[in-house]
């Protein structure tokens, strides 16, 4: 039932519009002039500019749909750019007719990298891409920034910067290095003197604390030419003890070479019976 009413309403509207045309009551449809210079009325020029802005808004909303297809998106993008150029012509005409300058007061549109697009596509200066058209094949690459290319220097270029200063031949000319070396030398000399004084104090303290020190000998200092006594702080064996130790070592070697283990055991047993302590090397 609702469908029949819609058909009847549509037929009634067509009938009424046709009747109004026959009687001459309908207003003639005004078309926008092809050239902006054909309009001499400021209000009319402003009206056509507003009409162009509405058309641009509708097409910008339409181009956001990526499912329209590549060819349809390209056509809509071309239509938007054409309307933008036409809007510029009408704005110039409004200024000529004494109206406001919309180009200065209106916010600037985003060019979306128009400089790169201009050189790559040849569509002219100011050509822009909107909505899903920016992701079309061959267009997406135009907005991607290329990574800076690093160029390696050649061996010849590197040798051009090598001079006497590179090898340090001019380091002494300003006098800064000489002063720095003096300060470092003074510091190293002071550290060496303090270290020698600490060692001398340790030696003197050690000689004072040792009560049973023995002066074994002396050695001559080559730098100072004086004889310095050498003190042994541990008991040293005398000549007889050394000879006895050598003799025991030789006996042990002979017994190990010519005597059997049984003979050595008998000797140890006899010594134990005689209450003699076995010799050790």
Notes on the protein architecture:
The chain is mainly alpha-helical and 281 residues long. 55% of the residues lie in helices and 5% in strands. It is built from nine helices and two strands. The protein has helices at 2-23, 42-62, 70-96, 102-105, 114-121, 155-160, 176-209, 239-258, 261-273, and strands at residues 214-220, 227-232. It has a two-stranded antiparallel sheet. The longest helix is centred in the C-terminal third of the chain and has 34 residues, at 176-209. The protein is elongated.
Structural topology:
Blueprint: H1 2-23, H2 42-62, H3 70-96, H4 102-105, H5 114-121, H6 155-160, H7 176-209, E1 214-220, E2 227-232, H8 239-258, H9 261-273
Antiparallel strand pairs: 1-2
Helix pairs in contact: 2-3
């Amino acid at each position: 039932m609702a469908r029949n009413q819609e058909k009847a309403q549509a037929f009634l509207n067509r009938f009424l519009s046709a009747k109004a045309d026959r009687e001459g009551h309908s207003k003639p449809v005004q078309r926008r002039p092809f050239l902006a210079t054909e309009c001499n009325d400021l209000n009319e020029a402003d009206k056509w500019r507003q009409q162009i802005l509405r058309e641009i808004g509708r097409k910008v909303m339409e181009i956001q749909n990526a499912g329209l297809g590549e060819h349809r998106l390209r056509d809509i993008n071309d239509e938007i750019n054409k309307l933008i150029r036409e809007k510029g012509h009408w704005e110039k005409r409004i200024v000529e007719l004494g109206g406001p300058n919309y180009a200065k007061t209106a916010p600037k549109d985003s060019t979306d990298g128009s400089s790169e697009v201009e050189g790559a596509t040849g569509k002219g200066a100011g050509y822009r891409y909107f909505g899903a058209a920016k992701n079309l094949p061959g267009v997406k690459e135009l907005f991607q920034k290329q990574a800076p290319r690093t160029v390696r220097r050649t061996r010849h270029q590197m040798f051009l910067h090598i001079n006497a200063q590179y090898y340090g031949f001019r380091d002494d000319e300003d006098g800064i290095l000489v002063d720095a070396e003096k300060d470092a030398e003074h510091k190293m000399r002071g550290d060496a003197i303090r270290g020698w004084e600490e060692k001398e104090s340790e030696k003197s303290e050690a000689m004072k604390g040792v009560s049973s020190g023995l002066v074994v000998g002396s050695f001559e200092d080559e730098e100072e030419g004086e004889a310095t006594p050498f003190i042994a702080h541990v008991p040293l064996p005398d000549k007889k003890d050394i000879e006895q130790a050598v003799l025991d070592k030789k006996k042990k070697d002979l017994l190990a070479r010519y005597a059997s283990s049984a003979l050595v055991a008998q000797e140890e047993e006899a010594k134990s019976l005689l209450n003699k302590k076995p010799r050790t090397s």
